[in-house]
Each structure stands twice: as structure tokens, then as C-alpha cells.
Design goal:
Elements lengths: L4 H4 L1 E4 L5 H14 L12 E2 L4 E3 L12 H14 L5 E11 L6 E4 L8 E8 L8 E4 L16 H4 L4 E3 L7 E4 L5 E3 L6 E10 H6 L17 H5 L18 H4 L10 H15 L7
Antiparallel strand pairs: 1-9, 2-3, 3-4, 4-11, 5-10, 6-9, 6-11, 7-8, 7-10
This protein binds fe (ii) ion.
Length: 277
């Protein structure tokens, strides 16, 4: 491994997903993000002008079994000596045309959250490269933003995560982190892991339902089923998860333009003039 997670608060594992898996995921994501759920529940939900997500991706993605990917990530956690962690949340995001950086901050969250990120497309300096100040997960942080001059002082400790697509990054969200502008497309997977007792005692913080579909319950998943027995409740309402917005996202977050275009497309199909999938 390139660095020690316990010292740096971040570690990169290159080539975690193969080139073939990445090619297949890109193709599949290209389709899933081509429409919002106005066109059907398999598609995406718009979270902002720049970001969409496919809710509950473990049941939406077919080319790679994301439950098995979670098992493989969990094995990496065990190698780092993190035992008894559960899969708390999985998300699949698409971002583009975002001229704004995500400003440097700490999530100031306890509970020992370990976040895993795998970029499928983009992730470079103009497509949302993730950045982390190594070692800052150990600081006693009382404010979410770094003090003036801190980043300049620590510039040699900033890790820019613009490695080859398919690399796995594990990081501690207490450490200061940010994301570059994202004018070009970035598609990424995020897996959060937490100890069971934190999920049970903080049912509305980070954790969310992990959808398990019959088609994805492979022998490998069954063998590791404990990973998914995570204590998430039926009424989980963690912010930034579909559990929170699933009954409160009119038109799947689509803009007026997208709504009008969808109606137009459906109408043209009805009268036999539109492209039929
Ligand atoms: Fe954050």
C-alpha cells in the first residue's frame, strides 16, 4: 500500500477494479444517468444543478456485483485491522459542469466512519479530483474549516487522488478534505463502513438501507452476509441518502426543461415519431 491509513488517514489501492469492470460500469452508468426517473425508476435522481445519483445502486448496477465489491473492500479494512465494521451506505454519483470546488472541510463526525471511493470516470483536476490533507484526522478539530494559513503550511501533505479509474481510496472523513472543480464528467461509487453499535445508536447519521436483490445474492455475498446485517432501521432518515428523500423528491429533482423534454419525448413516441428504446 502506498501509505499507512492509520498514520495518514487515507490510503490508495490502485487497480482495485479491473479495466474491463471499469469499461462495463462506464457503459452502464452512461445509460443510467442519461435520464432522470421521470423516464422510469431505473434511472437517476437529480440532487442539484450539477449532481445526480442512482439511488440504491446495489440493485441497479448489473455488470459488476456491488455487494461483492463491498465484500472485497471490507477485506481491505480487515487487513488494516478494522474488525466488526458493517456496510452502512452505498451511493453512485454523477457530476459535471460544476465550476465550484468543494471547499476544504472536516466532516467532524465521530463513530470511526471509513469511507471508500472508487472513481469510474473523471476524477482528474478538472473533473472533481478528491484531495485530503494527510494526518489531519488526528487533529482535535473544533471548527469544520481549516484555520487561515493551514493549507499553505501543509501543502506538502496534500494528497490529490487523481489516480487511474478503478483505484480504491479509503479515508477518514474527520481529516480535512475537498474536491476540485468538476467541469468534465465524474462518476463515482462511495461505500461507507461503520461499527454496528454506531449505526444502531445513530440511526439517522450516514447509514441507509442497502438494497439486496435476489439476482445479486451470490455465494460470495451469502458467505459474507454478516457485512450487510448492519442495524439500519426501516425508518432510517440519514441526510444525503435516498432514505431521506424517497418520499419527497417531486419529479425526481428534474428541472423544468427536463420535465418538458420528457413529456415531448413520450408524446413523440406515442405518435410513433420518437426514438424507441
Ligand atoms: Fe465531507
Amino acid at each position: 500500500m502506498e501509505s499507512n491509513y492509520k498514520i495518514d488517514g487515507i490510503v490508495a489501492i490502485e487497480g482495485f477494479l479491473s479495466d474491463e469492470q471499469i469499461a462495463n460500469l462506464r457503459k452502464e452508468c452512461n445509460d443510467l444517468f442519461s435520464y432522470t426517473q421521470l423516464m422510469g425508476p431505473g434511472y437517476s435522481v437529480r440532487l442539484s444543478n450539477f449532481v445526480s445519483e442512482v439511488p440504491y445502486p446495489t440493485i441497479k448496477i448489473n455488470s459488476v456485483n456491488l455487494l461483492e465489491v463491498a465484500v472485497d473492500i471490507h477485506k481491505e479494512l480487515e487487513k488494516l485491522d478494522y474488525k466488526d465494521y458493517k456496510l452502512a451506505h452505498v451511493a453512485l454519483y454523477h457530476e459535471n459542469k460544476n465550476p465550484n470546488e468543494l471547499i476544504w472541510h472536516s466532516d467532524m463526525r465521530n463513530g470511526g466512519l471509513i469511507r471508500a471511493q472508487i472513481v469510474i470516470e473523471g476524477g482528474d483536476l478538472n473533473s472533481g479530483a478528491f484531495r485530503f490533507v494527510k494526518g489531519t484526522q488526528k487533529l482535535k478539530i473544533n471548527e469544520p474549516f481549516p484555520p487561515a494559513g493551514f493549507l499553505e503550511k501543509e501543502k506538502d501533505n496534500i494528497m490529490v487522488c487523481n489516480k487511474k479509474n478503478g483505484s480504491l481510496f479509503l479515508f477518514d472523513t474527520i481529516g480535512y478534505h475537498s474536491k476540485c472543480v468538476c467541469m468534465d464528467t465524474r462518476v463515482s461509487l462511495m461505500f461507507d463502513f461503520l461499527p454496528l453499535d454506531y449505526i444502531v445508536n445513530n440511526p439517522n447519521d450516514v447509514s441507509s438501507d442497502i438494497a439486496l436483490s435476489s439476482a445479486k445474492i451470490s455465494p460470495k455475498v451469502i458467505e459474507n452476509i454478516d457485512l450487510f446485517v448492519n442495524g439500519v432501521q426501516n425508518d432510517s432518515r440519514s441526510a444525503n441518502t435516498p432514505d431521506f428523500y424517497r418520499f419527497n423528491k417531486p419529479f425526481s429533482g428534474a428541472s423544468l426543461k427536463e420535465i418538458v423534454n420528457t413529456f415531448k419525448m413520450v408524446f413523440l413516441r406515442k405518435i410513433g415519431k420518437g426514438k424507441v428504446n
